[in-house]
Here is the input.
Amino acid sequence: MKERNNLYPVFLKAANLEILIIGGGNVAEEKLTFLLKSSPDAKVTIVSPMFRKDTIALAKKFGVEMIHKKYHKRFLKRKHIVIATTDVPKVNMQVYKDCRKRSILVNVADNPPYCDFYMGAIVTKGNVKVAISTNGKSPTTAKRLRQFFEEAIPENIDDLVKNLNEYRKTIKGNFEEKVETLNEFTKGLIGKKEVEK
Here is the structure.
């Protein structure tokens, strides 16, 4: 049987969640950077005995709470999502076990079997956001696809989305009728002609 990606994509309101990053090295900085790029209003705490200079600057800029201590399970209290990025496998495994016991979503960086979720490549143009996953198999492919979609999605897509939202408010009828009207109206967006059967 052919392998497929069974992940279910969701778009989280990171400002409503408590996110914890454990570690203060390059990987922690990378995860924090991508998270804040996509969700600048995310509520993030980062725990590590040491932090890189750039990580400290980034944390200050976005109001990220920094705790200069080694990991302890008490830091999981009231957290919804945890990302473990330390270079000590034993610590990362303990984080994973502690999170699983508490039903907290966890991602152990660069260790797919110990991830409830992956942080995919993301393209954002105003209100339009596209997330790309390779099922944890090839971040490089996801990066290339992100570059492709950044060029393929027109810069004015956000104007279209806003205009369609205003138009949607004026359409009369029940939900199904509104959907049918919008489907007909937006059919030309994909730039392909329907093939007649």
About this structure: The radius of gyration is 20 Å. The mean pLDDT is 91. DSSP finds six helices and seven strands in the chain. The helical segments are 26-38, 53-62, 89-101, 139-152, 157-170, 175-186.
